[in-house]
Amino acid sequence: MRLEHVDVLIVGAGLSGIGAACHLRRECAGKTYAILEARGAIGGTWDLFRYPGVRSDSDMFTLGYRFNPWPEARSIADGRSIREYVRRTAREHGIADKIRFHHRVISAEWSTADARWTVRAKRIDTGETMLLTCGFLFVNTGYYRYDQGYAPEFPGADRFTGPIVHPQHWPRDLDYAGKRVVVIGSGATAVTLVPAMAQAAEHVTMVQRSPSYVLSLPSADPVAGVLLRVLPAKAAYPVVRWKNVLMGLLFYQLSRRRPEWVKRFLRNGVHRRLPPDHDVDVHFKPRYDPWDQRPCIVPDADLFHAVRDGKASIVTDGIDTFTEDGVRLVSGRELAADVIVTATGLNVMAIGGMALSVDGVTVEIGRTTAYKGMMLSGVPNFAFTIGYTNASWTLKADLVSGYTCRLINHMERQGYRFCVPTGPAPSAGPLIGLKSGYVMRSIEALPKQGASAPWRLHQNYLRDVLLMRHGRLEDGTMRFARSALAAWKSPAETHLDAATEQESKK
């Protein structure tokens, strides 16, 4: 059977996948490509999440594409606007007709002899299995599981007589107007939901086991507002973008080097926005340092306004059990509820859950080391996108796509058929360096990072610009070959060596 072949196969049609396709079309002219998307629409995260108030937790001047600037002064944007922005980008750059919806990738098998991947996908709508081949596989599925959010088992959940809703699966017909709502969680989703639902609900109570750091920012960037009035958008955009990049880096570096100073800064910011008698140290003083977990952004202090107005409240306590009428806490206090929302987080899933093999050897993702945070040791002609944890996702996605295009063009010019990161360097920890629950639950399933570059992630956009836009492609770590008969270890042998080395250290 003759299989359909493309030069590059992109998996995922969300923010990262659409950006990757745009880069490929712009920078690798003549390369054939296709995009496989498991869902039925463009947008990824921004199409999936439909809960009240869903919005960006990064500013849109860095979350937007570098090649297609965000067109508004509004910096914190709602989910619908972001979804439309991604879809508009796909249409304007001629990407939309390259997407094959309802195609979930099940597995991908690399053959060194043929220098190509054979990708198996299942048609969600028909159940049909599809096979494609490609020269380069580029995975843009993010790192969490789309079909299932994290939902711990709460005692007594079957006794509660009202609806229990997870934000990842928000029902369109949920009616909470005039009702009492309990939101369980303290992360970005919870602090988004509480003020949004408080506009219609009788009262919303956020129940958190432990607090998170919360930072209020204006939803409209004042600098952008001024510049967009006096300068053309093409001139204003890079200024605002770099301003936000540098401010984000400064805040992160201060958080790591002067955590006590940043703690006081964040506490004072919360204290100024709440009533004098509000116990800030109980409800807004985490047990960890800033940026051990990602801080929660509150646009225009909306969470604090809801608390001050009496429409919302925050309770820091453990949950003992659900009851027929609400929630009983460990302290014995009972909270009445008509609706319970479990904003309890995500399930992590590396590379969309697909199975990888190289020359018949199964690739165990958790035993690989990430090269430049975007390729896997011993896996040829393969890249994936995971954005920054301390800055906008798209800043890193843009660099990964640009580097991938540089790599593909270099291989074309030199006549190389495949490339593979060799190593790995000794593991120095998980790829995602946060201590959030969703990361800690999934450390074994994620790639690792090494102790030094190019295996080390520094979470620093300025360093990565130099490394990925201007650094050498043939750096002694990335191996290239023109044929399977080249005198070097095959990718399968490299992967086996890596697995053996890590096993011996256990």
> Main beta sheet, described?
9 strands, mixed
Total domains, how many? 2
Q: How many helix segments?
A: 14
CATH superfamily of the largest domain: FAD/NAD(P)-binding domain
Q: Which ranges are low-confidence, i.e. pLDDT below 50, for 5 or more consecutive residues? A: 490-506
Task: Please state the average pLDDT score.
Answer: 90
Alpha-beta classification? alpha/beta
Strand tally: 25
- Give the C-alpha Rg: 24 Å
The N- to C-terminal Cα distance equals: 44 Å
Q: What share of residues is helical?
A: 25-40%
The CATH class of the largest domain, by name, is: Alpha Beta
Share in β-strands: 15-25%
CATH-assigned fold name of the largest domain: FAD/NAD(P)-binding domain
CATH architecture of the largest domain: 3-Layer(bba) Sandwich
Tertiary shape: globular
Cofactor: FAD
Family: Belongs to the FAD-binding monooxygenase family.
Keywords: FAD, Flavoprotein, Monooxygenase, NADP, Oxidoreductase
Protein name: NAD(P)/FAD-dependent oxidoreductase
Description:
The protein is globular. It contains 14 helices and 25 strands. The chain has helices at 15-27, 45-48, 60-63, 79-92, 188-198, 222-230, 233-257, 259-273, 280-283, 302-308, 393-414, 437-440, 461-469, 491-504; strands at 4-11, 33-37, 99-101, 103-111, 116-123, 129-139, 164-165, 180-184, 203-208, 214-217, 296-299, 312-316, 319-322, 326-329, 334-336, 339-342, 355-358, 361-362, 370-371, 375-376, 382-384, 418-421, 427-430, 448-450, 478-481. 45% of the residues are buried. The protein is α/β, with parallel strands linked by helices.
